[in-house]
Amino acid sequence: MRKRRPKERIIQPDPRFGDPMVTQFVNMLMLDGKKSISFAVFYKAMDIIKDRTSEDPHATWKKALNNAMPQVEVRSKRIGGATFQIPTEIRGKRKISIGMKWLIKFARARAGKGIADKMAAELIAASKGEGAAVKRKEDTHKMAESNRAFAHFRY
After folding, report:
1. pLDDT band at residue 154, thresholds of 50, 70 and 90?
2. For residues 87 and 103, what is the distance between their CA atoms, to the nearest angstrom?
3. Are 97 and 155 contacting, i.e. CB atoms less than 8 angstroms apart?
4. Which of 22, 62, 92, 109 is 20–30 Å from 119 (CA)?
5. 146 and 119 Cβ atoms separated by less than 8 Å
6. What pLDDT does 76 receive?
């Protein structure tokens, strides 16, 4: 256990939309410390979304993120020699980071050419309530619902 909570780091807003959550998303998208490439990929995906849907790409991204964020998760706890999957609520920051990680993970796993195209396709699908990230969220919620009987073991 740590002695005290770490100081919360302030994330600078991104240059195009002025949203710190976009910067957080780009930081998760980044590989090998190449942030400028990550920003270029994200903005190219936003341009592709604007061309394909003719809607505000930032609003589409926000909607996709909201559709991919889980509300509950299951955590394993060992009680009396048996391991139970206990459903627990997720705090706000963790919801956001899990949703972002799922969007990025499933965008990378998509078929297609170029990460920007894949990211745009996954974001459009997630904003419509489809896509692999939204499916993962629904599966997590189903698992939590089926294990609701063990909710009284919550920490």
Report:
1. low
2. 22
3. no
4. 92
5. no
6. 86
d(CA 152, CA 125): 36
Q: Residue 42, exposed/middle/buried by CB under 10 A (0-12, 13-18, 19+)?
A: buried
Helix (H) or strand (E) holding 72: strand 72-79
Q: Is the pTM of this model over 0.85?
A: yes
Supply φ then ψ for residue 154, to 5 degrees: -55, 145
Integer Cα distance of 57 and 48 in angstroms = 9
Q: List the beta strands (DSSP E) in 1-155.
A: 72-79, 82-89
What pLDDT score does 70 carry? 94
DSSP label at residue 94: H
* Contact predicate 137/70, CB 8 Å: yes
Residue (of 155, 148, 146) closest to 77 by Cα position = 155
Please tell me the distance from the alpha carbon of residue 2 to that of residue 6, in angstroms, as a whole number. 9
Q: How many C-beta atoms surround the C-beta of residue 24 within 10 A?
A: 16
Instruction: Please name each of the domains of the chain with its CATH number.
Output: 20-153 (1.10.455.10)
Please calculate the CA angle 68-51-66 and round it to the nearest 5 degrees.
15
